[in-house]
Amino acid sequence: MELTVLLRNESCRKGLYRSDVLKRLARRVCGGEGVRQNAELSVLFCDDAAIHDLNRAYRGKNEPTDVLSFGQLAEVGAAAGKKELVLGDIVISLETVERRYPGDRQAMRDEVRLLFCHGLLHLLGYTHGTAGERSVMRAKQAEYLEVDAGSAWPVCGAPRVRAK
Fold this sequence. Notes:
Blueprint: E1 3-9, H1 19-32, E2 39-46, H2 48-59, E3 67-76, E4 84-93, H3 94-100, H4 105-123, H5 131-145, H6 149-152
Parallel strand pairs: 1-2, 2-4
Antiparallel strand pairs: 3-4
Helix pairs in contact: 1-4, 3-4, 4-5
């Protein structure tokens, strides 16, 4: 399986993620979740104003959020004989991340990894509308991020144990 991860940073915040780390994480998650064919996903890093607009337009929530996922799960390129699974798009607000962990760049990077993993699991069909679904998603995030379950989904703004 070949995985293409397209990253674009439209935020004024820089250095809060490493593309190689996110791409390795994406390969680990997709491999662990049984994605066997070539796949593609895109990630947009933005600030609160942009994610606020998306959250209002697509979820009816008039506030910024930390991460949004827009799943596609569509095959493209079949006519050319090259099938590729388009997983969808992840949008992460780096402004929200920075506000949660002011001055702690490592905590911000850890948070971006968690939000990316969370968004990718959504693209792969996971939800967290019920306690059982939250428990499954938390366990998956802990597994792929190699952290304990408490660090994989803490109360918003609570201190987080550093990822390995």
